[in-house]
């Protein structure tokens, strides 16, 4: 399809080919129309070629995760996976909740209260993605004995971002708090994420 | 460039002038398929098929690269990864049907392109190199198409791989070793599938490279034409652009119409139902056949059923490869100085028989092997070899060609009744 | 020189083919191939007249849903449907909640792993799951079916010539072996454990007649469940499982053909326009 946008060669006057032009505009209209149609057709074909890279139906369908939280003791956390990303489910201790609430929200880089990041009546359940908002590493702090960092929450070893007990960014290069996904408690002990 | 009256690229805008000094790519395109390439003015629609073949290759590369983003070349999951493309990937069914039918469109267009060359003597001097490179492209296409057909890992894929690699086991002494080397095992499996995928991805780009050489070689003597008479002067040619770009536009439209009809309304017409059954190394389908474009060659393979010095199997394989490789010698097998079959009454007749013969071979290749079909195949195979190796070299000696026109322009004017009235415009 | 060599090579191929031809003719005359029962008694499929057939074919969702019911209550006991997912059922008109309920109540459970012990276990199906296979693997399937393997049905209508018609004809095509067949081919008596069916490639199929009586399933939409009706419905369902994008394909195809048709017309006009002053 060498025809697309060059019916007239670059730098050439079409006149030499059409010596007896009576109405050039009407005559060349059909050339322009044909080339435009080819262009529209090419664009129409490009759309599926781009769309094929979007998540496929099977990926979209597997986008909820059910978590059983009955076995997580106060002060413990588990690491599970949601949409192929790590998910942290943490049962905060009263001390950790108090620490989180004691912070002046206005001083935070990404101001949010603990209550905004948990469900009413379930303030001890901190559910976040385990994906550092800097460049996507998995922060430490969810596993037993891991470094929780200077603010007692999570600590990303890649570039030193430190999160507090509400998983809010307190130090280091990360711009945002750890993301809280959509979830709700389907019973006292099960959480449906996504 | 070939003719002294070819237009020269003269960029007007400063940016294009700057680019032309640093990297004269627009100049290359201008001289290859632009106004800088003078082409005989009398080409008919059969000359569309070269451009259409290029278009088909582009379609195959684009759809193939996108399919490769979803396909998994592992015997355990290949079949279900294709099903996931068909069901779950966005527009996946469109891409896959376009790729599968695109292969058929590519081969169809190329067969017409080859037939055009045979009829109008485009393989003859001074265009032998164009023809030789074309045969190389054809061989590469056959290899690519075969390996692509293995990838979905259906029953026909698997047994096609088994049978085609089986050809090599006909070679005396080392045959079995070569077959095992090709497959990376004793039967088609992961190793074979993975290397076929790798090569299937590679070869189209090799084809694209050889196509560039093919076009390069073509531009030295310039295009042939339906009279086969050499270009004598400027009045015999028109610039490729806009004249043949406009004509190719019509060809592209019709090509797309047929292609779309296949993709959207009969995507499995040219496929085989057995390839929707996952490969099973323990059970051969009742009736295994290759894709339609290999059927004539498959018929030649099947026709050699008797041992004579060499075993029948080796004769079949030799004949099948020979039937393609003999095309390399065509420019020297045909000694007639006249190119176009329009002026060669006897050759034209034999060529007509060859066309019929290849259609018969195609039918036999796909039909069941009963006595009638085998006999038909054996007679048709014999004509195929006789045509190229015996008839073609000798026919020129006893043939009296019809008088050739003095020039392309003369032929064109004769067709229009010799009058010089201005051809009135069609659009009104 | 070229002529001599090529003629010699050509003659060699023609000569070998002549020998082969002689052999073929001799065999055909002396010992003609015997007719086989499959060749004489095999029947091409009867038309199922499904709305999905033809160039503008569409699915009748009510029929496809009825076919799904037949699959669920009759076929699913032996045949898997592994390339189809429960979530796909939304495309034939089930609501998300209905799909969830269908998946949850599906008799055969999804293989999984006990999260405590790591042992193999099963769990209830979710919409994102494929239809579970009734047998854990091929050996189990054969063991339960007199050494025959019930094929997966996801692609059945694309894996046979005229697939929808084939499915419809096969499941309604069981009959007694014709007396003429036994007379002409005494060796072709249907073996014990197999069933005579002229629509099956080799006439003897391992699957017992799946639809045995009218009213074998009770359709929710009140359609009378004759054997013929159930067979058509399940053929419609399997047409959908094999080609779920059929409607989108036909719709896109119509638009594409119209668009390309107009382009052809314009391209022809442009061609005439460009060439108007040049004879060719």
UniProtKB/TrEMBL annotation, chain A:
Presence of the UniProt keyword Electron transport in the record: yes
Membrane-topology descriptor: Single-pass membrane protein
Cofactors named for this entry: [2Fe-2S] cluster
A UniProt-annotated Pfam family: UCR_Fe-S_N
PROSITE patterns registered for this protein in UniProt: RIESKE
CDD domains linked to this entry: Rieske_cytochrome_bc1
SUPFAM superfamilies: ISP domain (SSF50022)
Cofactor mode of binding and number, as noted: Binds 1 [2Fe-2S] cluster per subunit.
Domain Rieske per the UniProt entry, residue ranges: 94-192
Gene3D superfamilies reported in the protein's UniProt record: Rieske [2Fe-2S] iron-sulphur domain, Single helix bin
Main location: membrane
InterPro entries: Rieske_2Fe-2S, Rieske_2Fe-2S_sf, Rieske_Fe-S_prot, Rieske_Fe-S_prot_C, Ubiq_cytC_Rdtase_Fe-S_su_TAT, Ubiquinol_cyt_c_Rdtase_Fe-S-su
Reactions catalysed: a quinol + 2 Fe(III)-[cytochrome c](out) = a quinone + 2 Fe(II)-[cytochrome c](out) + 2 H(+)(out)
Its biological purpose: Component of the ubiquinol-cytochrome c reductase complex (complex III or cytochrome b-c1 complex), which is a respiratory chain that generates an electrochemical potential coupled to ATP synthesis.
Miscellaneous comment in the UniProt entry for this protein: The Rieske protein is a high potential 2Fe-2S protein.
PANTHER family named in the record: CYTOCHROME B-C1 COMPLEX SUBUNIT RIESKE, MITOCHONDRIAL
Protein name as catalogued: Ubiquinol-cytochrome c reductase iron-sulfur subunit
Origin species: Sphingomonas jinjuensis
Automatic annotation (TrEMBL), chain B:
TM region(s), chain numbering: 45-73, 94-114, 129-151, 163-187, 199-218, 250-270, 314-333, 345-363, 375-396
Iron is among the record's keywords: yes
CDD domains found in the cross-reference section: cytochrome_b_C, Cytochrome_b_N
Main location: membrane
Keywords: Electron transport, Heme, Iron, Membrane, Metal-binding, Respiratory chain, Transmembrane, Transmembrane helix, Transport
Highest taxon, organism lineage: Bacteria
Requisite cofactors: heme b; heme
Gene Ontology MF terms in the entry: metal ion binding; oxidoreductase activity; quinol-cytochrome-c reductase activity
Residues the record lists as binding heme b b562: 99, 200
Sequence ranges assigned to domain Cytochrome b/b6 C-terminal region profile in this UniProt record: 230-406
One Pfam family of this chain: Cytochrom_B_C
Cited Gene3D superfamilies: Cytochrome Bc1 Complex, Chain C
Textual note on the cofactor: Binds 2 heme groups non-covalently.
Positions that bind a ubiquinone: 219
GO BP: any one term: respiratory electron transport chain
Cellular localization per UniProt: Membrane
Binding-site positions, heme b b566: 113, 214
Membrane topology type: Multi-pass membrane protein
One cellular-component annotation, GO: respiratory chain complex III
Protein function: Component of the ubiquinol-cytochrome c reductase complex (complex III or cytochrome b-c1 complex), which is a respiratory chain that generates an electrochemical potential coupled to ATP synthesis.
Quaternary structure (record): The main subunits of complex b-c1 are: cytochrome b, cytochrome c1 and the Rieske protein.
Entry protein name: Cytochrome b
UniProt organism field: Sphingomonas jinjuensis
Automatic annotation (TrEMBL), chain C:
Binding, heme c: 75, 78-79, 207
Subcellular location: Membrane
Cellular component, GO, one term: membrane
Coarse class of the protein's main subcellular location: membrane
Needed cofactors: heme c
Keywords: Heme, Iron, Membrane, Metal-binding, Transmembrane, Transmembrane helix
Residue ranges of domain Cytochrome c in the record: 62-242
GO molecular function, one term: heme binding
Free-text comment on the cofactor: Binds 1 heme c group covalently per subunit.
UniProt-recorded name of the protein: Cytochrome c1
């Amino acid at each position: 399809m060498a025809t697309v946008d060059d019916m007239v060669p670059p730098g050439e006057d079409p006149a030499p080919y059409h010596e007896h032009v009576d109405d050039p505009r009407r005559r060349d209209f059909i050339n322009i129309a044909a080339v435009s149609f080819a262009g529209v057709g090419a664009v129409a074909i490009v759309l599926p070629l781009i769309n094929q890279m979007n998540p496929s139906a099977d990926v979209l369908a597997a986008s909820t995760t059910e978590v059983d939280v009955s076995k997580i003791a106060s002060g413990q956390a588990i690491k599970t996976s949601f949409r192929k990303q790590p998910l942290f489910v943490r049962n905060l201790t009263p001390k950790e909740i108090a620490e989180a609430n004691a912070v002046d929200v206005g001083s935070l880089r990404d101001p949010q209260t603990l209550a905004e990041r948990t469900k009413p009546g379930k303030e001890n359940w901190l559910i976040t993605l385990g994906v550092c908002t800097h460049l996507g590493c998995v922060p430490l702090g969810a596993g037993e004995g891991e470094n929780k960092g200077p603010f007692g929450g999570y600590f990303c070893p890649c570039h030193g971002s430190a999160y507090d007990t509400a998983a809010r960014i307190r130090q280091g290069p990360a711009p945002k708090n750890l993301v809280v996904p959509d979830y709700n408690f389907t019973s006292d002990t099960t959480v449906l994420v996504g | 460039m070939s003719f002294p009256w070819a237009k020269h690229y003269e960029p007007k805008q400063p940016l294009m002038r700057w680019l032309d000094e640093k990297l004269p790519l627009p100049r290359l395109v201008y001289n290859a398929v632009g106004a800088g390439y003078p082409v005989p003015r009398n080409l008919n629609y059969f000359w569309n098929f070269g451009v259409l073949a290029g278009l088909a290759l582009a379609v195959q590369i684009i759809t193939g690269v996108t399919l490769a983003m979803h396909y998994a070349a592992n015997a355990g999951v290949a079949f279900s990864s294709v099903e996931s493309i068909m069901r779950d990937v966005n527009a996946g069914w469109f891409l896959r049907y376009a790729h599968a039918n695109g292969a058929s469109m590519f081969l169809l267009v190329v067969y017409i392109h080859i037939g055009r060359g045979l009829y109008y003597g485009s393989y003859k001097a001074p265009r032998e190199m164009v023809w030789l490179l074309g045969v190389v492209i054809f061989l590469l296409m056959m290899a690519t198409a075969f390996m692509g057909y293995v990838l979905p890992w259906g029953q026909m894929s698997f047994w096609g791989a088994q049978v085609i690699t089986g050809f090599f086991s006909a070679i005396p002494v080392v045959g079995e070793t070569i077959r095992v080397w090709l497959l990376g095992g004793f039967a088609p499996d992961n190793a074979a599938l993975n290397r076929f995928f790798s090569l299937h991805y590679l070869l189209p780009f090799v084809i694209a490279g050889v196509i560039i050489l093919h076009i390069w070689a073509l531009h030295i003597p310039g295009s042939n034409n339906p009279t086969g008479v050499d270009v004598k002067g400027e009045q015999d040619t028109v610039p490729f652009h806009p004249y043949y770009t406009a004509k190719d536009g019509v060809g592209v439209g019709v090509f797309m119409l047929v292609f779309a009809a296949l993709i959207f309304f009969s995507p499995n017409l040219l496929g085989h139902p057995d390839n929707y059954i996952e490969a099973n190394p323990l059970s051969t389908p009742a009736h295994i056949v290759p894709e339609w474009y290999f059927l004539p060659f498959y018929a030649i393979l099947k026709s050699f059923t008797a041992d004579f010095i060499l075993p029948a199997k080796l004769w079949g394989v030799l004949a099948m490869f020979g039937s393609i490789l003999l095309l390399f010698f065509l420019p020297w097998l045909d000694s007639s100085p006249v190119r176009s079959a329009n002026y060669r009454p006897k050759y034209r007749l034999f060529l007509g028989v060859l066309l019929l013969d290849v259609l018969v071979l195609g039918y036999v290749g796909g039909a069941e092997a009963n006595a009638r079909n085998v006999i038909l195949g054996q007679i048709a195979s014999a004509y195929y070899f006789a045509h190229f190796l015996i008839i073609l070299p000798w026919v020129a000696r006893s043939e009296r060609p019809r008088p050739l026109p003095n020039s392309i322009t003369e032929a064109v004017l004769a067709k229009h009744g010799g009058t010089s009235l201005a051809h009135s415009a069609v659009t009104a | 020189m070229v002529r001599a060599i090529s003629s010699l090579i050509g003659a060699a191929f023609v000569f070998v083919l002549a020998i082969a031809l002689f052999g073929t003719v001799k065999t055909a005359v002396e010992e003609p191939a015997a007719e086989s029962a499959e060749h004489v008694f095999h029947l091409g499929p009867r038309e199922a007249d499904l709305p999905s057939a033809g160039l503008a074919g569409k699915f009748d969702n009510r029929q496809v849903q009825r076919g799904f019911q037949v699959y669920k209550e009759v076929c699913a006991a032996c045949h898997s449907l592994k390339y189809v997912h429960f979530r796909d059922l939304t495309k034939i008109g089930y609501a998300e909640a209905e799909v969830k309920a269908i998946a949850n109540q599906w008799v055969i459970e999804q293989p999984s792993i006990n999260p405590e012990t790591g042992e193999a276990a099963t769990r209830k199906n979710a919409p994102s799951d494929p239809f579970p296979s009734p047998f854990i693997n091929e050996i189990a399937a054969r063991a339960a079916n007199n050494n025959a393997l019930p094929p997966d049905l996801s692609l059945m209508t694309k894996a046979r010539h005229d697939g929808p018609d084939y499915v419809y004809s096969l499941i309604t095509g069981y009959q007694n072996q014709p007396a003429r067949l036994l007379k002409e081919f005494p060796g072709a008596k249907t073996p014990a454990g197999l069933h005579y069916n002229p629509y099956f490639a080799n006439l003897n199929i391992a699957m017992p007649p799946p639809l045995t009586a009218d009213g074998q399933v009770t359709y929710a939409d009140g359609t009378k469940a004759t054997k013929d009706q159930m067979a058509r419905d399940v053929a419609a369902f399997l047409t959908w499982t094999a080609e779920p994008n059929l409607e989108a394909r036909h719709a896109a195809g119509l638009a594409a053909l119209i668009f390309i048709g107009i382009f052809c017309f314009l391209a022809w006009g442009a061609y005439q326009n460009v060439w108007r002053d040049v004879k060719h």
